[in-house]
Each structure stands twice: as structure tokens, then as C-alpha cells.
Amino acid sequence: MNTYFIKLKEPTPTIVKMFNQWENDPNLVPLTRPNRNKVDVERHVITMDDITQRLEHHHIYLIYLDDKLIGEMNYMVDPPHLYQKKPGAAWIGITIGEPEARGKGIGYRAIQFLEEQVKRKGLKRIELGVFEFNMQAHKLYKKLGYQEIGSIHDFTFWQNRMWSDIRMEKVLG
């Protein structure tokens, strides 16, 4: 099992297709984006321009397993939605889009790689949000040394109710 990561410089039709597939996977939607209500969970369409615009503010890395694109991860520097507004922080996100790639430790290795990229940029802190029902991701982040720094109540809709977003951070050594 060979896992590797490639920085996305320019979207291709294949990448747009995969991003749309993951963005609209009913198993992933509740985990990857906040939804204010049931309507928000409905289909989103991502275009080539959307990804190109995203690249202006995000450093995106594609996750491959044995030459198959299985996910993406990214970071932004000092976005406005940080819980703690300390300059020099990265906000990270990860999606393991392909079901057969989940639960194999790929997310663990991917986050370690992303942390290394953030360090190389000279950033000293990483912050992220994980929805309170996403226990698997919460456990992964704790294992990687992330600590809870706060919570935003009634942040996302799932299973007919609102859930909190747990904010976590890791100070890089």
C-alpha cells in the first residue's frame, strides 16, 4: 500500500469530478462541511473555477493510494474563522473521499505530512474544527497531539438536530 501526496497547482477535469463526488457523498457531507439545516445538505456543484479560486487562499494536497486519487487535504493561513485569532496560524482540513481508503491510517500520515508543510511555511500553530459527532476524527486529532480550545454550539445540522463544532489546536515545535 503506497500512499503519497501531491500539491495541487491546477485543477483538471478528473480532479473536479472527484471533488464533486466527495462533496456530494451523503456519508461525507455531514463530516466535511457545516450545514445549517436539511436543505444545506443538498447537492453542491464544484467547477474548475471554484477550485482555481480556492487555490488563491488554500494550499491543497491530493492524497493518492497506489496511484488512485482517494482524498484531499488543505490549509489556509490566518483565515477569519479561527477560534483564537493569533497570527501565524494554519487552519487545516482533510477528506478521505474513497470509502476503501478509510480506517487504514492514511489520515494519520496525511495530517503528519500537512503539519510538516505548515512548519516549512514558518507557522507555529494549527487550528481545526471537528463536529462533535465525528468521534473517529476527534480521536485521530487527539492521538496526533491536538487539544480542545473551545466549542461553537449549534454549528451544524445532522440527524435532525444541531451539533457543536469542537475547535482544536496544536502548537508546532
From TrEMBL:
InterPro entries cross-referenced by the UniProt entry: Acyl_CoA_acyltransferase, GNAT_dom
A Pfam family that this protein carries is Acetyltransf_1
Which CDD domains does this entry report, sorted A to Z?
Answer: NAT_SF
Q: Report the residue ranges that make up the N-acetyltransferase domain in this protein.
A: 6-173
Q: Which domain of life is it from?
A: Bacteria
Q: MF terms per GO, please?
A: acyltransferase activity, transferring groups other than amino-acyl groups
Q: Which UniProt keywords apply?
A: Transferase
Signal sequence span is: none
**SUPFAM superfamilies in UniProt:** Acyl-CoA N-acyltransferases (Nat)
**Protein name, UniProt field:** Protein N-acetyltransferase, RimJ/RimL family
Which organism does this sequence originate in? Virgibacillus salinus
